[in-house]
Write a structure and sequence with these properties.
Bound molecules: alpha-D-glucopyranose
Strand content: 25-35%
Strand order of the largest sheet: 8-7-6-5-2-11-10-9
Number of helices: 12
CATH superfamily of the largest domain: Glycosidases
CATH topology of the largest domain: TIM Barrel
Shape: globular
Number of strands: 29
Distance between the termini: 27 Å
Radius of gyration: 26 Å
Helix content: 10-25%
CATH class of the largest domain: Alpha Beta
Length: 588
């Protein structure tokens, strides 16, 4: 945020109603995309499974221990375990307690709708019967069973979507794969050979041998757009309905897959206008560690789920089974308790979307159609749930678990209050339904109250239209992208309460293809035309001066940015527009 300057007082008001300016769900713009995403949008909650030879080491090798709080599946790399030695260890894998139907049953009982399994992690070992490399669980160990086969079958028969995690770039076993510099000289690596002889052929096997694969979950993305596109095209050509996560490409690229993944254990700070997923651990590691007992409680899991879903995301929660196939009992206990809550509250999670109302002191909100689900995490001392900002009528309110109990609703101006006395509290998350007279509408979506600072109109405060969408990149930054023509825009309403000169500055990143593309910043009736200057890469944000504008009158202004013609490519990755007062300012 900006330093206080004490010269300008700008209040954000949104006089236009949200519906006039709000972008429709832009991800629905292409129907193929919408078809592919449908189940994902409905599902909300999935199980991630990290399981491989690293589970056998369980966080310890030759007396060296993986510190709690770091990833146990990285043990080969952390201790530079020689390939020959790791391979010997991998031979011991014999998961006699592996029970695909039982694992899937647990996911299902927890309320999860999809499952993503590590078919190959960075250590290069295939957890399925690969014919590309004998370094796989069937040919390399005495186990002789194919977990991808068994899990995909179990998912199909129990009605869960099945997906594979595949480490496409990183491979510490293959001399040409990325990452192992302790056995193999970097200068002698031929990365293309690894891609052509192992990575792509294995992906092809996974997409042709096991029926429908609903997601390929890539990790540690390719360094070049070209490589990422090759993998995307391969998936599309073999299974057009299969989803691809954002980690197919690197941190320095815009989204190449179907949806974005947050950083590990990250949660978006706000509602985004793209599909996203939060991959999270149940303790602090993905692969099993015998040392890590920092378990999240069922309450933690439920609160995270609601927080994520209330911002429009999916929660992909990991378990790390032990080498013998046993799921740590602490994980099982927690998931079972989460499942009990989901059986009661599932309606408030599945198929819901982000709440237009912000997080509340008492909890979080999810939305479906004309229903708001009020998730109470901290019971209010006065037994009242205030709701401020809705323009709708609240027609009725009741506990989700007991629709027969009608709750008293009162209204003062834009604040509704739902009284929840004597209602039986549910553990961790008591859910109430507020039935509205239509889809929830919040007006004004007030973003910034009166301040005395120079003004920063940022991504989250913007109202977007057309294809322009608020998005996330894996470096944890938010930006507006996807705008390619004049009907795609970002807008803000501001109330200028002191007239005078303002310097206008814009902050964005842009790719070389956008060089010299014209765009327009309109403020009130006036416009500033400008041309894009490319920055280093998609996430190298820079600030550019657009010149001065004089506000001769105080009052409300509409500020709007849009490409000035059809460009055929993304205009820029926008972060903010600054209005910085210059010289003396006056009130009317
Ligand atoms: C990180 C870890 C990787 C794990 C992944 C899951 O990228 O390095 O081991 O598989 O997170 O999100």
């Amino acid at each position: 945020m900006f330093p206080k300057a004490g010269v300008l007082s700008v209040v954000m008001v949104l006089s236009l109603t949200g519906s006039a300016l709000y972008a429709a769900d832009t991800s629905e713009s292409s129907s193929h995309e919408a078809q592919r995403m449908r189940w994902f949008k409905e599902a909300k909650f999935g199980m991630f499974i990290h399981w491989g030879p690293y589970s056998y080491l369980a966080g310890e090798w030759n007396g060296l221990k993986i510190p709690v709080g770091t990833e146990a599946e990285w043990i080969m790399q952390r201790f530079n375990i020689p390939v020959a030695e790791y391979r010997q260890m991998a031979r011991q894998l014999n998961p006699v307690h592996f029970d695909a139907a039982g694992w899937v049953q647990l996911a299902k009982a927890t309320g999860m709708k999809y499952l993503i399994f590590t078919a190959k992690h960075h250590d290069g070992f295939a957890m399925y019967h690969s014919t590309v490399s004998r370094y796989n669980i069937v040919d390399w160990t005495q186990f002789k069973r194919d977990p991808v086969q068994e899990l995909s079958t179990a998912c199909r028969s129990q009605g869960l979507r099945f997906g594979v995690y595949y480490s496409h770039r990183e491979d510490w076993d293959d001399p040409d794969g990325f990452g192992n510099t302790w056995d193999y000289k970097r200068s002698q690596k031929n990365f293309e050979r690894y891609l052509e002889q192992k990575s792509k052929p294995q992906l092809r096997e996974l997409l042709t041998r096991y029926g429908l694969i609903s997601v390929v979950w890539f990790d540690r993305g390719m360094d070049t757009v070209e490589h990422a596109n090759e993998f995307r095209d391969l998936v599309r050509s073999l299974q057009p309905s299969c989803l691809i996560n954002g980690r197919i490409g690197s941190y320095g690229q815009d989204l190449i897959g179907d949806y974005q993944d947050m950083s590990d254990n990250g949660i978006s700070t706000d509602g985004l206008q793209e599909y996203w997923e939060a991959p999270q651990t149940l303790n602090t590691t993905w692969g099993y560690s015998k040392f890590d007992q920092q378990w999240k409680t069922p309450g933690d899991v439920i609160h995270r789920l609601v927080e994520i879903v209330g911002k429009g995301g999916n929660y992909l929660l990991n378990i790390g089974p032990m080498a013998d196939g046993t799921i740590p009992p602490e994980s099982v206990r927690t998931l079972e308790q989460v499942g009990e809550r989901m059986r009661v509250n599932g309606e408030s999670i599945y198929g819901t979307s982000a709440s237009p109302l912000p997080p509340q002191a008492w909890g979080r909100i999810t939305v479906k159609g004309s229903k708001l689900y009020l998730h109470v995490f901290s019971w209010p001392a006065d037994d009242k749930l205030p709701l401020t900002g809705l323009t709708n009528k609240v027609l009725a309110a009741y506990p989700l678990a007991n629709p027969g109990t009608k709750l008293e609703i009162s209204q003062v101006h834009r604040t509704y209050t739902i009284a929840v006395p004597a209602v039986r509290r549910q553990p961790n998350d008591s859910v109430f339904v507020a039935e509205l007279d239509g889809a929830p509408h919040v007006d004004p979506p007030v973003v910034v109250q009166g301040t005395e600072t120079p003004f920063e109109l940022d991504t989250m405060q913007a109202v977007t239209g057309g294809k322009a969408a608020k998005r996330f990149n894996r470096q944890g930054k938010l930006h507006i992208a996807k705008w390619t023509g004049p009907s795609d825009f970002a807008a803000w309403h501001i109330l200028v309460s002191q007239k005078g000169n303002y310097q206008i500055r814009i902050r964005y990143s842009a790719l070389p293809e956008s060089e010299a593309t014209k765009y327009v910043v309109a403020i009130g009736g006036r416009t500033i035309a400008a041309f894009i200057k490319p920055t280093g890469d998609a996430f190298d944000y820079k600030t550019f001066d657009l010149g001065q504008m004089t506000f001769t009158k105080t009052g409300p202004y509409l500020v709007k940015i849009a490409p000035s013609s059809e460009t055929g490519h993304d205009l820029m990755f926008f972060q903010s527009l600054e209005l910085v007062p210059e010289g003396p300012l006056m009130v009317d």
